[in-house]
Inverse folding.
């Protein structure tokens, strides 16, 4: 057991990280995973977590935090009838399967590999955000199976490897096929549930017994971070949302795109810098 002073510093850093993540999540209107992972990576580095497991721990802990937040969001959207339940029912196997595959990959992947994956997807997301056009369409309705099943599995894999709830990826998929952003966001909350629950158990299994993990960790999940971050992000998010109302949709999209570019460059620099 480390000294109390080190645990207090760890808790303080996580509380600050949660505030930043919540503020940015509220500002950019996303679940926070894309923000939490790079923030966790920095904080875990400051307390001396082994580089070999730092990215794994960041991704797994982010997925654990997404479980209650995505479930709460999904139930709220469900009451308003905005969720595409047919799509979610069709993905009850596909998306969790992808999340489990992601955990299996993570159990064998190096820290560098996970950072490269995160950076590559972040750049793709940034491209869409910065250069997005309403006219971009691939069809007027969602594709049938097996294409739809494969997309769900792919969203589960990529989100599980990034430690995100799948919101950005699913929003892109649904909007490219003519669905409204309101329905896409509502449905993405359900996708987050399908990703985060199997992802949580998968990352516990993937990291079980690994050396170099900080105190109070189960595999690649750090429970100190989980229980500190959830309330802090929920407090901070409304302030970010208030700030968002002072900006246009285009400014928010561009701002988030630039943020993702900076995160991607940070991870690239950590590997080759």
């Amino acid at each position: 057991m480390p000294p109390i002073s080190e645990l207090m510093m760890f808790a303080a850093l996580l509380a600050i990280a949660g505030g930043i993540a919540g503020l940015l999540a509220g500002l950019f209107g996303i679940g926070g995973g894309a923000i939490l992972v790079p923030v966790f990576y920095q904080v875990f580095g400051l307390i001396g977590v082994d580089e070999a497991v730092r990215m794994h721990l960041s991704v797994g802990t982010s997925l654990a935090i997404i479980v209650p937040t995505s479930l709460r969001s999904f139930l709220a959207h469900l009451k308003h009838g905005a969720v595409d339940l047919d799509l979610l029912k069709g993905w009850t196997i596909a998306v969790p399967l992808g999340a489990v595959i992601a955990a299996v990959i993570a159990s064998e992947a190096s820290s560098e590999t996970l950072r490269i994956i995160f950076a590559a997807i972040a750049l793709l997301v940034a491209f869409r955000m910065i250069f997005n056009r309403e006219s971009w369409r691939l069809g007027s309705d969602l594709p049938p199976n097996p294409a739809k099943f494969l997309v769900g599995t792919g969203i589960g894999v990529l989100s599980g490897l990034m430690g995100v709830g799948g919101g950005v990826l699913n929003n892109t998929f649904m909007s490219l096929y003519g669905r409204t952003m309101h329905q896409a966001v509502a449905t993405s909350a359900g996708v987050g549930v399908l990703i985060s629950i199997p992802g949580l158990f998968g990352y516990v299994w993937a990291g079980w017994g690994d050396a170099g993990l900080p105190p109070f960790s189960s595999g690649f999940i750090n429970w100190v971070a989980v229980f500190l971050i959830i309330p802090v992000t929920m407090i901070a998010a409304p302030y970010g949302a208030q700030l968002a109302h002072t900006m246009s949709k285009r400014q928010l999209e561009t701002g988030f795109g630039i943020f993702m570019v900076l995160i991607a460059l940070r991870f690239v620099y950590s590997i080759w810098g």
Summary: The chain has a mean pLDDT of 83. The longest helix spans residues 51-79. The chain is about 75% helix and 0% strand. Residues 4-272 form one domain.
